[in-house]
Write a structure and sequence with these properties.
Rossmann fold; 2 domains; six-stranded parallel sheet
């Protein structure tokens, strides 16, 4: 089948490359000429494990191409995916649908013959209705179906998630549109991936409900972690104890500095706004967002407390800047408010991240970026692990201790045990592990 992917960012590029790998003919479109030129030159502008090789293989095979010309890409397409950004709108927190609606107008002017227009972007309930209205208004006689197909890609594991999904959600009642979507995803039937057909509004809400629920699990275990610290319990054992209940499950029960990234912060906020618009306030989600925002900056107080409350003139080494491992995404990363708060307290910050430092420079300032963890630790009074990159799981503590002026590890991801760190002469602070975990 012929696919046009409008938007060549994270979702569009991963989805386009995977559809091409299924054997479809895919054209990825973007208004950013520099991005398209880079992709045509074999340069992938984002870090995602396996994506560079996947793009190169399918481009070489002639199944994946890149262009700024939306009209030519859409003209022969059986399905056109809208995979543009939907950032939080400044001022009110609603999802900004400007790019979605602009794309709908351009698509309407370009479609030729029956075409399925698919919203892949994360969009609030009713967006598909508006896309349909825009297309009809622009091309009253056009032959099309508007479907919703939300993405559920985890950064760092996006290719695996696309090719072996838990589920494929397709929203829309148009019979021919459903047939096209079934054919697009037919290669996944061998993996027995369930495809769930529902109405368009339900599909749109499934995406937001899923992200809000996962954000709630993260925030719940973070609050339990705070209580565990006070009473001398171990949040990791608590998470294991409740996670073994298959009604709860173990995933997203890892205490830490709060959630970030391109999805959870903006999607929880957009869902909150939708609930307010429809007079159905989502009080639990409102609390989740508020607690998470407060938590990120509170991690700086944990560092300060571990140093006796005096940060002025001290150097703090921060390991990990991206919101999670295996990505260079800095959007709403917990490291940003943490570093800002440390600086506000009078500390100097040195930082290292395996792939995210170039991106980080657009989010934080007055930070010394270092070549590795040991250069980062030089002269530091505390070493803070913010992102659980695998490179930080087997640090040479003797080398770190020799570089630091004070051997203190603040482990915000609980990747070490207190006893093993203590053997190397380090003081140790973690998240949600009270006195019983430190004894």
């Amino acid at each position: 089948m012929h696919v046009a992917m409008i938007g060549s960012g994270y979702v569009g590029l991963v989805s386009g490359a995977c559809f091409a790998d299924f054997g479809h003919q895919v054209i990825c479109v973007d208004k950013d000429k520099a991005k398209i030129d880079a992709l045509n030159a074999g340069e992938v502008p984002i870090y995602e494990p396996g994506l560079t090789d996947l793009v190169a293989a399918n481009a070489k095979a002639g199944r994946l191409t890149f262009t700024t010309d939306l009209k030519s890409a859409v003209k022969d397409a059986d399905a056109v995916f809208i995979a543009v950004g939907t950032p939080s709108r400044r001022g009110d927190g609603h999802a900004d649908l400007t790019y979605v609606f602009d794309a709908a107008r351009e698509i309407a002017a370009a479609i030729d013959g029956f075409t399925v227009v698919v919203t892949k972007s994360t969009v609030p309930v009713g967006t598909g209705d508006e896309v349909e209205r825009i297309i009809h208004e622009t091309r009253a006689g056009a032959d099309y179906a508007v479907m919703s197909n939300p993405e559920f890609l985890r950064e760092g594991a996006a290719i695996q998630d696309f090719k072996r999904p838990d589920r494929i959600v397709v929203g829309g009642d148009h019979a021919r549109g459903r047939e096209v979507m079934s054919e697009l995803y037919r290669p996944l039937y061998l993996n027995r991936s369930p495809i769930m057909f529902t109405d368009r509004r339900t599909a749109e809400l499934i995406k937001y409900a899923a992200n809000a629920f996962l954000a709630t699990k993260i925030t719940f275990i973070n609050e339990i972690a705070d209580l565990a610290e006070k009473v001398g319990a171990d949040v990791q054992e608590i998470a294991r104890g409740i996670g073994l209940d298959n009604r709860i499950g173990s995933k997203f029960l890892h205490a830490g500095p709060g959630y970030g990234g391109s999805c959870f912060p903006k999607d929880t906020l957009a869902l909150i706004k939708t609930g307010q618009d429809y007079a159905a306030p989502l009080r639990i989600v409102e609390a989740v967002a508020a607690v998470n925002d407060t938590r990120k900056r509170a991690m700086a107080r944990k560092v300060s407390t571990a140093l006796g409350g005096d940060m002025r003139g001290k150097t703090i080494a921060v390991l990990g800047l991206t919101f999670k491992p295996n990505t260079d995404d800095m959007r709403d990363a917990p490291s940003i408010p943490l570093i800002t708060a440390l600086q506000d307290m009078g500390a100097s910050v040195r930082a290292y991240d395996p792939v995210g430092m170039e991106q980080a420079k657009g989010y934080i300032s007055n930070v010394t970026f270092c070549d590795d963890a040991y250069a980062c630790a030089k002269g530091a009074s505390a070493l803070v692990i913010v992102t659980e990159w695998e490179q930080f799981r087997a640090l040479d503590f003797a080398r770190l201790k020799a570089a630091m002026v004070n051997p203190l590890l603040v482990d915000l991801r609980n990747i070490y045990r207190a006893d093993e760190v203590a053997r190397h002469g380090f003081a140790y602070e973690s998240v949600g592990r009270g006195h019983s975990a430190k004894s």
